[in-house]
Amino acid sequence: MIDGKRIAVVLPAYNAGLTLLRTYRELPLDIVDDVILTDDASNDETSQIARSLGIHTIVHSKNRGYGGNQKTCYAAALERGADIVVMVHPDYQYSPKLVLPIASMIASGHYDAVLASRILGKGALAGGMPLYKYIANRALTFAENLLLGQKLSEYHTGYRAWSRKVLETLPLEACSDDFVFDNQMLAQTAWFGFSTGEISCPTRYFEQASSINFRRSCIYGLGVLKTALAYRLARWKLTKPSLFYDVSAKLQRAVPLVEAQAQA
Ligand SMILES: Nc1nc2c(ncn2[C@@H]2O[C@H](COP(=O)(O)OP(=O)(O)O)[C@@H](O)[C@H]2O)c(=O)[nH]1
Ligand SMILES: [Mg+2]
Fold first, then answer.
1. What pTM was computed for the model?
2. How far apart are CA 35 and CA 30, in angstroms?
């Protein structure tokens, strides 16, 4: 708890067996009330390890994709009463020790969402981020800041936090089940007028922490540009994309959870 607010950490996992324990061990469990892992049909021991650690574990019967996995995470966190939800990749790429300051920024009431940025503080290249990913990150961020009217240092981190209000308001079911989910969610956050803060975070690149190849990264990059353009056109009232207008697409709480748990 922070200031009487219930803190959940959600871990969207895919083949995280080799890094989950290290990630979990560094969580500040004294202030974290709930840890939830959703296993997107991994081929390894992810769910067994998660259960052995006492983590609330949900297993998808088949691979839904990175975005689909996060939808399950957030639905579960809301269902279990979270006031603040911190999402961190369980691949030990980001420092779990920062959950306290990240969640505190939301508990303060100043921010609705918080991103742990690898770009603030110059840590990305030092942490081993490949140069092509760094350049793409900077270029996409520049374009997005222009089109979304924001001033963020990056939009691509796998470490982010949300207030309950954000998760209950955004039409997250209208977002993709693929990697571009992260970006669409941030565009929705801006669209619905929520404020986003940032904190700097060290990053680590090693084999198990980074598996997305060049081709998938390019698909993601194009999706990011499409999302930012959609936002700008919608702001200019030229289009009404479901990403921003389909208010019926709020997170379906029970349905995916029942399906996921029944198959576990
Ligand atoms: N649900 C799901 N997650 C995936 C899949 N492939 C990768 N991920 C996760 O997506 C996240 C980002 O991928 P990662 O390879 O770490 O990217 P990078 O760190 O940006 O190079 C990680 O937490 C992966 O476990 C997948 O097929 N399904
Ligand atoms: Mg990673």
1. 0.95
2. 12
